[in-house]
Amino acid sequence: MMQKISVHDLMDLRLLHQIETEPNPKGLCEISLSGRMVLVCLGRDKGEVRVLQDEVSWIRVIKASDLDVTCVALSNNGRLLAAASTKGTLNRLFDTLSGMLLQEMRRGSAFERTEIHSLFFCFDAEWLAVTSNKGTVDILSLKDAKRNNMSLPSLSYNKGILRKYFIPEWPTARFMYQKIYNTS
To answer: What keywords sit in the KW lines (predicted)?
Structure first.
């Protein structure tokens, strides 16, 4: 069953556009905060993200994952899109103009599912923060990939699962947090 996102003019609440999406129980949708207008939401099919630009006159579909997309973030200027899937081990960074994959950033083991709670760009899109159900906040460098942990074992990893596991960048930093319960 398709769902829709409605775009309204905030001055008179006039309906400008309706966008069909796959089922979207989390209401995933992001809008750029400065510069040109960019809106991202789920696409019509699994793993797709739709990018609407310039007052919804231009639409691009990005295949962000083979699985359902569970989290998206848009940089302030609308140029970068970060997406995570139900598996939660890879976060992907795309250029919204070209739809091109720019970076893959790993967090966690390929064999352990992680629920990504949020993706957040810093104001200048130099860093991406990723929070998860594992009690972690991962910080990933976007402008200087050398800052991300790229220390790899000396293996020949040019094909197969080793390449898929080792080539994506790992976080620059990881913080653990714990739940604090009010007992009063």
So the answer is: Repeat, WD repeat
Q: Which CATH number fits domain 3-145+167-176: 2.40.70.10, 1.10.10.60, 2.60.40.650, 2.130.10.10?
A: 2.130.10.10
Question: How many whole angstroms separate alpha carbon 137 and alpha carbon 130?
Answer: 5
Residue whose pair of structure tokens reads 């596991």 in the numeric block: 165
CA distance 36 to 21: 23
pTM greater than the 0.90 cutoff: no
DSSP character at residue 146:
G
Per-residue pLDDT tens for 83-115? Answer: 998 887 788 999 998 999 998 887 766 667 788
Residue closest to 73 by CA, chosen among 45, 105, 49: 49
CA gap 78, 55 in Å, rounded: 13
